[in-house]
Amino acid sequence: MLKKLARKHLGKIRHRKSETNKYDYGNVFIFGGSVGYFGAPLLSAKAAYRCGSGLVHILVPNDLYEKFPQTFPEVMVHPYHKIDDVGALLYKMDAVLFGPGLNPYDSRQLEILNLLLSLKKPLVIDASGLDFLKQILPVLDDGSFIVATPHTGEAERLLDTDKPERHLDMLFDKKMTVVLKDSEVLIAQRHHSFIAINGNPGMATAGTGDVLAGMILSYLGQGYKPLEACKMAVFLHQKAASLAEDKYGEDSMMASDIIESLPDAIKSIK
To answer: What local confidence, expressed as pLDDT, does residue 106 receive?
Structure first.
């Protein structure tokens, strides 16, 4: 049964212990970025930190490394040329996001995705990463550790249908969790589904999906189960967007305004 997402459907945000360190709150990785789309993984990274991640890494192809803007000092940026360059790093991760700003024509990315699937660590697949997911979907057996986060257009391409909300069984059969983004957001597994209706028109701007993907990544890295991580992230994403709308108005909102409103959104539900 489809339920309207509300505060009562969320678990508790975990409190930090007094004796603790950054490794206790998730070591998360983001594969993303290409010429013209460097901002996408940076938005995801900053959103992950605002939701409590201890360490956030961005991995970019080595030919783009020197062009990548080092504007966010808390993020660690790593270059790679081939799959062998990243394997050792990935064994240290708690969760990974694959896709924001990624070049969909870079054949290396299919190898990267197959490696990520073999590790079975919590995995968010977003944006261009969904194009690579489509290629391996027929042979994927167990996607229980995967969260797919398409907007409606991406879902249409992924599922080869103009009515993706009616064909999500193709992903549920793989045991995936799905966040289908539109003016309302559907969060679903096969036997559990929620609809989040508290967004606003100011969210219809570049980068808001990257912010949400980074938030889901953060909660996965902190140990939340996929459905719980998605509910928490979507609820707070819409709450922060409401606060940003109050401050800037829906015409002037940017994705980064949602990130800056996350601390107040999180405090409001703790």
So the answer is: 92
